TrEMBL record, chain A:
NCBIfam families: PA_CoA_Oxy3 (TIGR02158). This is Phenylacetate-CoA oxygenase subunit PaaC. One of its GO terms (cellular component) is cytosol. Pfam families: PaaA_PaaC (PF05138). It comes from Haloferax marinum. GO terms for biological process: phenylacetate catabolic process. InterPro entries: Aromatic_CoA_ox/epox, Ferritin-like, Ferritin-like_SF, PaaA_PaaC, PaaC. The gene is paaC.
TrEMBL record, chain B:
The keyword Oxidoreductase applies. One of its GO terms (biological process) is phenylacetate catabolic process. It comes from Haloferax marinum. The gene is paaA. It is an enzyme of class 1 (oxidoreductase). This is 1,2-phenylacetyl-CoA epoxidase subunit A. Gene3D superfamilies: 1.20.1260.10. Keywords: Oxidoreductase. Residues 1-20 are annotated as: Disordered.
Length: 290, 314
């Protein structure tokens, strides 16, 4: 793809450019925030103290990424309550993969979900390295470095759990359940705005090509671990049959969500509401000064 | 080494796994460190739901990091306890799960609201800091060594707790009232954190003779009150009337201990306090729910190394 023209800073964007930048940032920030919110459920409940510590690390990394992306939305005059605490639950743009609850003890869900998510995260953040919006491109390196570790972590768990039949059956169950939801990571918010994101060069791969790249990575990996991916049973030409995958009714990207999301939103905004807060305390340096 | 020699030599960081320690010493040290490790885990378990409830993104990050640190302390302390050769980490974790493992009184109480979080993170952690700082010179070297890292990180936790308290006490009237109510609920428990006066404490004598324990309960409580009463007042909290606390001219305090509920305290100490059982049982349930993963990891280790070493999967 030819390098798009560099866009100016946040104050000098046209309305159309700004709308595209915002949409892209909501996709990124909401995913990271919500999946991290779910990951923290595993803190002090993971199988070992060691896995507990790594799950906490990963949740904090994702929260840190959400912070970077929300901070870029603040460039447009929003404040944290507008973006998180006082935003309508029905306005959020995260993929529904991020919002599903974990069943008690369902570590296979955590492993599969984080594997599918981290591979997708890697693909989409790679496509931001050459973004025409410099504020975004500048923050990619930090995110990518952390995602490399997440991918290794998820892959190694996936491989180990697939070694014996009992735990592989649990992993298979999680794959069957989660794969449709994972596909929503690549679903469009609004077709027209998504096209504009590509035209403006805000990302260097469009949603479909990223989905192909992701499937080409995850399907063979899952299969080589002895897992079965229903719709991917056709020959090697993975890009031919991917269109057959069924998406769930709620993709999240178009603001359709499962009921779990509304419960989760109520839970994480509970103290903010009970305390009658109108602002969110910042306790760290601004990401631009770090 | 005989017990007399242990008592003679009992200086800071004097003994390590290289020394041949008498069983009495190893058991006493195990009891103390295991209690400490269990407390880290159960404290983290109690606080974990409040990562979700943190009312700002950066506070959420800090809270998750704090809970993670506590788990890390637990890991470190079980290792220090294991080095005494009395119990393995798995045995200690099993004891904690099945309700035999003892831990700090404050972590037995359920916590319901965000305003309670600084009661743990500021006051209880502050109280723990007092004790832990003295343990840097405990006679069991691995324990003292663990305290170096623990104290360093606890310093951040207390600051985190203090910042949450400061936010609440400079917030709306409603926030201030909620925080005061939480303080009143937690204050007697925090005073009891240091346990009964020394004459009632059964394990104190031996532990201090062999250099495991450096300061008595009374001394620690006095030091805590000296620092934390002014701090609480600085933030606008009113010290509750019960228990009656009188300050003496020499800066020490008289705490009317008989006004505190020691029946409840000793019930807690035996893991028999009804509301606290919820914590123990739900953690046990959560641990059992992932037992299949640990089994799977053990099989993995078996295949790799053919041994029977326990899993340490990260």
């Amino acid at each position: 793809m030819a390098a798009a023209q560099q866009l100016p800073g946040p104050q000098d964007l046209t309305d159309e450019q700004r709308e595209a930048v915002e949409m892209l940032l909501y996709r990124l920030a909401d995913d990271e925030f919500v999946i991290a919110e779910r990951y923290t459920e595993w803190q002090v409940r993971a199988p070992t103290i060691e896995s507990d510590l790594s799950v906490a690390n990963i949740a904090q990394d994702e929260l840190g990424h959400a912070r970077l992306w929300y901070d870029l939305l603040e460039d447009f005059g929003y404040e944290e309550p507008d973006l998180i605490w006082e935003r309508e639950a029905g306005d959020w743009r995260h993929s529904t993969l991020c919002e599903l609850p974990f069943g008690e003890g369902d570590w296979a869900d955590f492993v599969v979900r984080s594997y599918l998510y981290d591979e997708a995260e890697f693909v989409r953040v790679k496509a931001l390295e050459g973004s025409s919006y410099p504020r975004l491109a500048d923050r990619v390196e930090k995110v990518l470095a952390e995602e490399r570790y997440h991918r290794e972590h998820a892959r190694s768990w996936l491989e180990r759990l697939c070694e014996d039949d009992d735990s592989r059956a649990r992993v298979q169950d999680a794959v069957d359940r989660l794969l449709p939801y994972a596909l929503t990571l690549f679903s469009p918010t609004d077709e027209e705005i998504e096209a504009r994101i590509d035209e403006l060069g805000l990302r260097t791969e469009n949603l479909l090509s990223m989905r192909e790249a992701w499937l080409d990575e995850v399907v063979p990996t899952l299969e080589s671990a002895g897992l079965h991916v229903e719709e991917a049973e056709l020959p090697e030409q993975y890009d031919v049959h991917h269109v057959d995958f069924d998406l769930p009714d709620e993709t999240g990207r178009d603001q359709s969500h499962t009921d779990y999301w509304f419960d989760l939103f109520d839970e994480f905004t509970k103290s903010y509401r009970e305390l009658g807060r109108h602002s969110a305390m910042k306790i760290m340096k601004d990401p631009d000064d770090e | 080494m005989d017990l007399e020699t242990v008592k003679e030599r009992a200086g800071p960081r004097e003994f390590s796994p290289k020394d041949d320690m008498p069983e009495e010493y190893r058991k006493a040290a195990t009891r103390m460190i295991q209690f400490h490790a269990n407390s880290e885990i159960m404290g983290a378990y109690l606080e974990r739901p409040f990562i979700r409830q943190a009312p700002s993104l950066e506070r959420k990050l800090a809270f998750s990091a704090k809970v993670q640190d506590e788990l890390g302390h637990g890991q470190l302390l079980y290792r220090a306890a294991e080095s005494l050769g009395i119990k393995t980490r798995q045995e200690m974790l099993d004891e904690l799960a099945n309700g035999q493992g003892k831990f700090l009184n404050c972590f037995h109480y359920p916590m319901e609201s965000w305003v309670e979080t600084p009661m743990i993170a500021f006051f209880v952690d502050g109280a723990a800091m007092r004790r832990q700082a003295t343990l840097k010179s405990t006679s069991w070297e691995p324990y003292a060594h663990a305290m170096d890292k623990v104290c360093f990180e606890e310093g951040f936790h207390v600051k985190h707790g203090e910042a949450v308290l400061h936010e609440l006490m400079t917030g709306s009237k409603k926030e201030q009232e909620m925080a005061q109510a939480a303080f009143e609920k937690w204050w007697p428990r925090i005073i009891q954190f240091f346990g009964p006066t020394d004459k009632q404490s059964t394990h104190h004598g031996f532990a201090s003779e062999v250099g495991l324990k450096k300061m008595s309960n009374d001394e620690l409580r006095r030091a805590f009150l000296n620092t934390y009463i002014p701090k609480a007042e600085k933030y606008g909290l009113v010290i509750p009337d019960t228990p009656t606390i009188e300050k003496n001219d020499d800066g020490t305090y008289n705490v009317a201990e008989d006004e505190l509920d020691w029946d409840e305290f000793f019930q807690i100490a035996k893991n028999e306090y009804e509301p606290g059982l919820g914590q123990i049982d739900s953690r046990k349930k959560a641990q059992e729910a992932v037992a299949w993963v640990r089994e799977s990891m053990d099989n993995h280790e078996q295949r790799l190394y053919g041994g029977t070493s326990p899993q340490a999967a990260d």
